[in-house]
Amino acid sequence: MLFKELIRKKFPAEPDQLCLIFAGKIMKDGDNLKQHNVKDGLTIHLVIRAAPRATEAAAPRPPG
């Protein structure tokens, strides 16, 4: 199971909203923990981005 999938079970966010940071570098979706030399006791930071808002172009505008 992917690390992001495990995290998603704990936090109500879509996968594209999750950003994992280790040693100052943003981890890509396809990366695994071994690629970044993540070991027990080290910290991975999680940033949950805000859900995308509906664009103004999609919102109905009053006539005139």
What CATH architecture label applies?
Roll
Shape: elongated
Number of strands: 3
- Radius of gyration, Cα only, in angstroms? 17 Å
Main sheet? 3 strands, antiparallel
What is the string of helix and strand elements?
HEEE
Class by SSE composition: alpha+beta
Residue share in β-strands: 15-25%
The CATH superfamily is identified as Phosphatidylinositol 3-kinase Catalytic Subunit, Chain A, domain 1
Number of helices: 1
Mean model confidence by pLDDT: 84
The helix content is 10-25%
CATH class descriptor: Alpha Beta
Number of domains as seen in the coordinates: 1
Measured between the Cα atoms of the first and last residue, the distance is 54 Å
Order of neighbouring strands in the sheet with most strands? 2-1-3
Low-confidence stretches: none
CATH topology: Ubiquitin-like (UB roll)
List keywords for this structure.
Ubiquitin-like_domsf; Ubiquitin-like domain-containing protein; Ubiquitin-like_dom; alpha+beta; Ubiquitin_dom; Ubiquitin-like (UB roll); 3 strands; polyubiquitin modification-dependent protein binding
Q: Could you describe the 3D structure shown?
A:
With 64 residues, this protein is α+β, with helices and mostly antiparallel strands. The protein has one domain (3-48): Phosphatidylinositol 3-kinase Catalytic Subunit, Chain A, domain 1 (Ubiquitin-like (UB roll), Roll). 12% of the residues lie in helices and 17% in strands. The protein contains 1 helix and 3 strands; from the N terminus they run H-E-E-E. It has one helix at 3-10; strands at residues 18-22, 25-26, 45-48. Strands 2-1-3 form a 3-stranded antiparallel sheet, with no helix packed on it.
